[in-house]
Amino acid sequence: MNLTNCFFSNQNFLTSKKLILSSLIVIGSYITTFEAVSRPQIATNNNFKNIVDAKKSFITIAIEKAGPSVVTIENHRLVTRKITSKESTILFDPYFERFFGLKLPKEAKPRIEQSQGSGFIFADGLVITNAHVVSNSDKLIVGLTDGRKFKGKVIGQDSITDLAIVKLSGQGPWPKAILGNSSQIQVGDWAIAVGNPFGLENTVTLGIISNLNRNVSQLGIYDKRFNLIQTDAAINPGNSGGPLLNERGEVVGINTLIRSGPGAGLSFAIPINKAQEIAKQLINSGKVTHPMIGISLINELSAKINENRVKVGYVVPNSPAAKSGILVGDIMLKIDDSKINQSSDVINAINNNGINKFALITIKRNNKIIKLNVKPVDIREL
Questions:
Q1: Do strands 295-302 and 291-292 pair parallel, antiparallel, or not at all (unpaired)?
Q2: 313-332, pLDDT tens digit by residue?
Q3: Percentages helix, strand, coil for the chain, rounded to the nearest 5?
Q4: Percent of the residues in the chain that have a pLDDT greater than 70, as a whole number
Q5: What pTM did the predictor assign?
């Protein structure tokens, strides 16, 4: 009995042992499976980069592309006061001050005036910026985002379009901006302004494209000739000459104007397509040809026909327009085959015509249609 009981006991023990071992195997398989599922995979460099890029905003990615090309431009000007006949020249003799310990009047002393603006590198060793940023410069210092600084030389500037080209004195490599196509942007597109407002380098602001082809005459500016991109991206003093980017980090404009006072918050940029045309002329000849016929224009809405029309507001004496017979009050209808709907159409048509070549201008005067041949000249001849 004891042996039998012992046998059965051993059998029970072996059976229990098998069950326990089987259970452990099953549990182990679950543990192994759980570990295989929960163990994190080791990310490759490419996977990690994709994960990081996915977390970046489009603004960050755009700035990474264009940011290195943005530069700070320091303009140093020597300012002197003209001596009048009533003032003794002895006061302007440095030896007089040195020997007698007298101080020259503060306003009479020559001084260095410094100002700062922005720009960006668009070709090897070439920076594009606003003309007013580098005007009357005696010395230009151009600073890159990597800390390098170079002397700059203005190789061409045009006050009419407010653009200038600066050549850097050093050797590359140069971080160059990617230029976009300003004719493809639309109202509502993202606009990213980059520059150095108030000397604060690499400042980025965000907005949208508020308007296209804004005529500068609408802003009360009559000595410039270009249509502007309007944006609500904040632009402040020092931003002038910096790039206006699209969401892909491509330059679509050059920041140039802000609206201060009532209605502040409006900013304006020169379209990059226009800027490239001007840049080519500045690089090749150092100046820009501006065909003109010598008239100022007024956009007005005709109540009778409910259409906008362009009226001649002023005719420059002895200008091509005056010589051809154009009068104040004439309505501009066509230039060659181009129909005139707004004053910018006249500017574009005359620009496309060029100088020393006749343009056929159709006007309306006292309900009469008149056609006149006018030969535009460069603005410097007016």
A1: unpaired
A2: 999 999 999 999 999 999 99
A3: 30, 35, 35
A4: 72
A5: 0.73
C-alpha to C-alpha distance for 382 and 373, rounded to whole angstroms = 18
Q: Tokens representing 105?
A: 């009047």
CB 128 within 8 A of CB 255: no
Nearest to 68 by CA among 254, 201, 181: 201
Whether residue 370 is predicted with pLDDT greater than 60 in this model: the reply is: yes
Amino acid residing at 102: L
Q: Which two tokens stand for residue 289?
A: 């040809």
Q: 309 near 331, Cβ under 8 Å?
A: yes
On whether the CB atoms of residues 73 and 142 are closer than 8 A, the answer is yes
pLDDT at 196: 81
Tell me which residues are annotated as active site: 132, 162, 240
The residues that bridge with 129 in the sheet, in sequence order, are: 164
Are 226 and 256 a contacting pair, CB within 8 Å? Answer: no
Residues in the chain: 382
- In 144-223 the beta strands, taken as DSSP E runs, fall at 149-158, 163-168, 190-195, 203-215
Domains of the chain: 66-168 (2.40.10.10), 182-285 (2.40.10.10), 291-381 (2.30.42.10)
